[in-house]
Design goal:
The protein is α+β, with helices and mostly antiparallel strands. Helices cover 15% and strands 33% of the residues. The chain is built from six helices and 23 strands. Strands 5, 6, 7, 8, 9, 12 and 13 form a seven-stranded antiparallel β-sheet that branches. A six-stranded antiparallel β-barrel has the order 14-16-21-20-17-23. The longest helix is centred in the first third of the chain and has 24 residues. It is globular and about 95 Å long.
Length: 415
């Protein structure tokens, strides 16, 4: 059945929503969690419809194999690049039998993928020979040799990831975009042991909350963990110069040992005076050395996110605002950049965008005496995927690159 582009995008979005809910349930390891993400019959039917449609043969990679065995260390993005010109279209290619494979976004080492080509469409099937292939029965009286086979039992924690986890996980707790002045309202380091100027992992330090909000234990039965930040630097739109947010510099992590209090302290005159006793913290991890004045923010709960790369349904056009890291002017593959689009613009986790390299402005000297100024067309320079969106800015991982990326480069829909 043919669908309009808008209908096709809606179907694919619903299928992806279904897949994400299933993946979250599987990652959490139990039906109790999965109940928070119910899959309706309509969502499942939509997912099946999209998967069964497949992709046009023209979307296949030139050397797409007829079959592929999943190996430990593979990623869905990598496998999709083996079969497709556009790896983010893999949900359309996965033509699973959902009665046997309940979640097409969870596959495991050892499983076999078969590429089917029917008419002008292509699909992937898992674990069985391609449709239409029938093995002839052995002739009567002939000895049948039975070979041992491995039975694969899918466990949620052994499935291959969408992307290599080490590329994104370090950034899930590091970059932070805050509003103007937000960091000024956070608890701060006020002193160190032995009058040290700089502190690092294994050191003890002291901290205070802002006026009226002393830094105390939230619950005596648990350890309060914090991240340490410094200097909220403005992120500006490279075109309009509008401030999109403030990026706080991540320094490390700390644990609260003893909360802030007020105690009577004996004065030199023989009396007592109520004085603030700052909270005690231990530095548990350090990316950079810390000092008095740095700020503490509560460690956010760990999120179990399974990334599903997909093209935005709506038209998006933005720019790269910054390259993450100190004194970094350009970025390469597997580096993180910030773009000037966020939740307010419809950006979602998993959105894939193409990076454009600006064409040069040159003088046309092809005709004598007529030197007109012209601009060479912009060319696609790579792909990035959003993994952490904020209101007006998002962090994205560069997945593919042809040349270096710099601040001001444009990002657009990948098709």
């Amino acid at each position: 059945m043919a669908h309009s582009p808008a209908t096709g995008s809606k179907l694919l979005a619903n299928a992806l929503a279904c897949a994400v809910a299933l993946a979250l349930g599987a990652l959490a390891g139990g039906p109790a969690f999965a109940q928070n993400y119910p899959i309706t019959p309509e969502q499942r039917a939509t997912a099946q419809q999209v998967a069964q449609a497949g992709v046009p043969l023209s979307e296949l990679a030139p050397n797409a194999p007829d079959s592929y065995t999943v190996k430990r260390g593979d990623t869905l993005w990598g496998i999709s690049g083996v079969f497709l010109k556009s790896p983010w279209r893999w949900p359309e290619l996965w033509g699973m039998n959902m009665e046997e494979v309940h979640n097409p976004h969870l596959i495991y080492p050892g499983q076999q993928l078969y590429l089917e080509k029917i008419g002008d469409r292509a699909r992937l099937r898992m674990g069985t020979a391609a449709a239409g292939v029938v093995e002839a029965p052995a002739p009567a009286g002939e000895t049948i040799r039975v070979s041992p086979r491995v039975r694969y039992e899918a466990l949620a924690d052994t499935s291959i990831p969408t992307l290599a986890p080490h590329l994104i996980e370090p950034f899930l707790s590091e970059p932070l975009v805050v509003g103007e002045g937000d960091l000024d309202q956070a608890p701060r380091l006020v002193a160190t042991q032995d009058t040290r100027v700089l502190i690092t992992r294994g050191d003890r330090a002291y901290a205070r909350g802002v006026t009226g909000k002393p830094l105390k234990e939230s619950d005596p039965r648990r350890i309060d963990s914090f991240r340490v930040f410094r200097n909220a630097v403005a992120l500006r739109d490279p075109v309009t110069q509008r401030v999109l947010g403030y990026e706080a510099k991540y320094l490390g992590e700390a644990e609260l040992v003893r909360g802030e209090s007020v105690e009577p302290v004996q004065t030199s005159g023989g009396g007592t005076q109520q004085m603030v006793v700052p909270a005690t913290i231990d530095i548990t991890a350090a990316r950079e050395e810390m000092r008095v004045g740095d700020r503490l923010l509560p460690e956010p709960p760990r999120q179990l996110t399974r990334y599903v790369p997909h093209a935005p349904a709506q038209r998006l056009q933005g720019s790269i605002v910054s390259v993450y890291g100190d004194a970094v002017a350009v970025a390469g593959q597997n580096q993180v950049v910030a773009i000037n689009k966020g939740l307010a613009d419809g950006i979602e986790v998993g959105h894939v965008l193409a990076i454009l390299k600006d064409g040069a402005v040159i003088e046309d000297r092809s005709q004598d005496g007529q030197h007109a100024t012209i601009k060479i067309p912009d060319e696609r320079n790579g792909l990035l995927m959003v993994f952490r969106p904020f209101e007006h800015v998002s962090y994205a991982l560069i997945l593919e690159i042809g040349d270096t990326v710099k601040v001001g480069d444009r990002v657009v829909n990948p098709r």
